Amino acid sequence: MDEASMSVDLQIPLAILELGKSADDKLFDIKLAAILKAGGIAKGYEREFMNDELPRVICAKKIAFILGAGTKKEIEEILQFSKVHYNGNEVVPSGQFHIPEEELLIWSLTSLKAPLVDAGFKRYMKLFRELLPQHAWVLDEKGW
User: Fold this and answer.
1) Could you give the 3-state DSSP secondary structure of residue 85?
2) What pTM does this model have?
C-alpha cells in the first residue's frame, strides 16, 4: 500500500518511524515538527473540502519532501502553499516542492471567494482534468 492511499492519521506515525531511522540527522527536530505540521495542513484540507483523497496525496508528497530535505530553508518552503506564477502566456508552477493537488485545492478555495482571471481559470480546469479525470465529464457538459 502506498502512502498516498493511507489516511493522514496513519501517514504521520509512519513518517515519524521513518524519520526515527535517521535519528542522527541534524534536522531531526525540525523534520519532526514539519511532519506534524504537514499532517495538520492535510487535515485542514480534509475539513475544508470534506474529501480525503487529495489531502492524502498532498500529505504523502509533503512528507516525502520533508524526509528528503537537506536544509531548514527547504523544509520551510515545503510547508508553504504550492505557488504559481504567470509567465506571460499561462499560469505555471513555481518552486521545486510544488504539489499540483495542493494547487488545485487552492484554486478551488480562491474561486469561492472571487471569480478567477482567465489564466487562473484555465490553469484550474487543466489541473482538474489531469488530477480528477473521473470527474472531467462535468467540465465537458458545461463547455469548459
Assistant:
1) strand
2) 0.88
**Which residues 6+ apart lie within 8 Å of 11 measured at CB?**
3, 39, 42, 56, 59, 60, 63
State how far the Cα of 136 lies from the Cα of 144, in Å rounded to an integer: 10
pLDDT tens digits, 45-67: 998 887 778 999 999 999 999 99
Tell which residue, 48, 51, 57, 54, has the closest CA to residue 11.
Answer: 57
* Domain range annotation of the chain: 1-80, 81-144
Determine contact, residues 8/59, Cβ cutoff 8 Å. yes
Type of residue found at 60: A
C-alpha cell at 28: 531531526
Bridge partners (DSSP) listed for residue 84:
93
